[in-house]
């Protein structure tokens, strides 16, 4: 807990010069019940995201597979029960050439949807993140719940009416205005930062939130596969909308805020802009380190998240094609196993490594694990190799929360909303750029090497690793020079 004097000092550092200091009280988490409610709502929220995302990815591919060759519909129907039908390597009544065309078209549609959502949400995340330092974290949890509930209700109607894919843009405009799912994660991460010190405790706390997210992902992976197999695509969309509606009520009535609202009557647009962008330009906004080290950390995170934002989306399409030919249930079980390994086991491995290694060294190992899983996946020629890649990537997911904590540790507590706002803006930008780049690569390399995109992803992880090692060397050199000067 932060004492009254420490709280006042922190706030005075962040107060706009010339304005009277208005102390901010950090609300208590209260009791274990509040923590339990937070865990439940995170799991539910992530189940909704994962269920909706998996359903959408598979629906888009299935819709294109069914509708893209409309001129040949009658011909395909006449051959449907014929023993001479030309089958693709996965056994569908389409040619191998059509499989590659459908894969490419599905990838591009998913890219367009992503660009629509992320393009709108970037300024909203900047606004919500900085604003949460003044109005509290709870509003940031409420807004995405409402947006996602509406988004998937619209998608369910589109699936029910079998409307063209272009109507999905209505749903993506809606969720984009709510900042996507990022404000929810921003609020959760900032809440951890509100209640922890800038050390391994904060890093592990943020890693725990990531692991809880992983539990939600695991729960959704298997269930979604069976839902799609047994009920089609509309009912999972309806269920997803209902889950987000439930999250809304739980957050409103069951979650307390870790930061009490303050008066904003003296807060101008200039103060918000300083809160958002000052840390990239001025040392006065950074508690430890320098502007250069903070910017290098953000660059390393940017390269890492360029891959992370699109890995699973392309992975679903990759697993549907030959030589794997997985159905929705197999994809679900594979995703479940992968998430158990990378989120749950990975968390315990990180905790063990933190006992004997520095924070920076653990991040290096996590990035090496990320490179390994990309290379093995890209070269995979059988399902067994995909299973091996999951094991090799045991620390790959943990690289994200560890780098977030590394950046958070440089900032005062009264700027955690702003720093996580910047982090999630970077994630949102990566959602646009990463999906644009890697979706194009995947679509254009279908004819000669479908896994080439994963090798490209591995190169991005490698560049992130090189920058981070340079950053650690730079910080070590600065500390050594200070010792010599003393």
User: What would CATH call the architecture?
Assistant: Up-down Bundle
The CATH first-level class comes to Mainly Alpha
* Helical proportion, percent range: over 70%
Distance linking N and C termini? 34 Å
- Major sheet size, sense and barrel closure: none
Q: Which fold name fills CATH's third level, the topology?
A: Growth Hormone, Chain: A
Number of helices: 18
**Number of domain units:** 1
What is the global morphology? Answer: globular
Average pLDDT works out at 80
Tell me the name of the CATH homologous superfamily. Answer: MFS general substrate transporter like domains
Query: What value does the Rg take, in angstroms?
Result: 23 Å
Strand content: under 5%
Pattern of helices and strands? HHHHHHHHHHHHHHHHHH
Structural class: mainly alpha
Region (Disordered): 1-22
Membrane topology: Multi-pass membrane protein
Protein name: Proton-coupled folate transporter
Transmembrane segments: 35-54, 109-128, 166-192, 204-228, 234-255, 286-311, 331-350, 362-380, 386-407, 450-474
